[in-house]
């Protein structure tokens, strides 16, 4: 199919959702309502259970009536939902009681997503979503269309975007080239080194207290001393190891669920990735909308030499594992493999620098400021804990005096806090760095886990130079870099170097000749 083929796909006429979308809309809406209003539903169910006026027959009749009303509303929503292409603009009309019309120009599309859960595969329908320059807040979804129609929409958007953007000599769409396919070993390592481990632990934290009560009630009956070690520290250690092993297993299973069969294909002006074990997902990234490529390594990832790439577009720099799950992510990479993939994400930009090349550090004053901040926070925390513990001990021995209390000397504790604060401040100072060479800017941040942001200097929207009273006396400044995808900060940069970097970046934005690298 050529890029200029616009009228042979039938998308100029009004299209409707698949008839299966009625049931899909009913199911997804019901699940979302139950998830959002679960406490109210539980309270209503408890009230009905204790009521004498409402029996099983009345409850079934009420539930059936609600189901009929929901089915009629879903049918009305299906009849009023339609879409078509008007030249290079996708037009969507929908609404139950208020009729709304959405128009999305193809040149404003930065990412599309196709999702097909396991229960949708026999039906032959998918969920198609398009994200505009406004980000996730302005994304538009088609809940249930045929896969052939979704592929036609993809081809139409690509063709319209290529006509509105820079033209190429070839009219035919290039054949996709496979850039990366994840291996089972890399998938396991990604599960162990990603943030899924922390996310799963946070999700399971509410179950700790019920599990503790269950063990308290059941352990006396199970006679645990028959199989537990006799040493209490050894038993606690084995319990922690078992809990960590369970979390690691869940993290690996989550990685297999999300990224099984991951394949990254280069389709000329866009990158396409397909992954998922049962819930198959396809994401399309428009390279002309790419703003920042970020190399992310967690603490375990740095130890095992693994990380992942995150491609940021307009308005997509918010952190978090859930947010990253919606972005264009390339998992299970080594640093060398990531360096080979980055040039394919920036076609026509020249050779991109290595993600692990040496960086310039900020002024040493930042290390001293961090040391003072950490030390004051630690001293305040230890003082608070000591005060709480002292009150408890005084309350426990109020009738017997203070005889038998352990002697406590603040000297060794203070020395330990100073050493700990100095070590953390030094490591954090070493982890922060930047480099500006060949029209590219790299910024690295993070202590245990690190993030390295790479982007062309011409993508900078604006910059801000800030100086506090202390910074003015010491001749350093803080640079705040604003991009279309978010903000980056470089604190405590020498004033001379910062002004030279600012002039260099502004010259790149204005298209002036490059003057080389900025060094300290």
UniProtKB/TrEMBL annotation:
Residues 78-156, 429-504 form the YdbS-like PH domain. It holds the Pfam family bPH_2. The chain crosses the membrane at residues 59-78, 187-208, 234-257, 370-395, 407-427. Keywords: Membrane, Transmembrane, Transmembrane helix. The keyword Membrane applies. The keyword Chloroplast does not apply. InterPro entries: YdbS-like_PH (IPR005182). This is PH domain-containing protein.
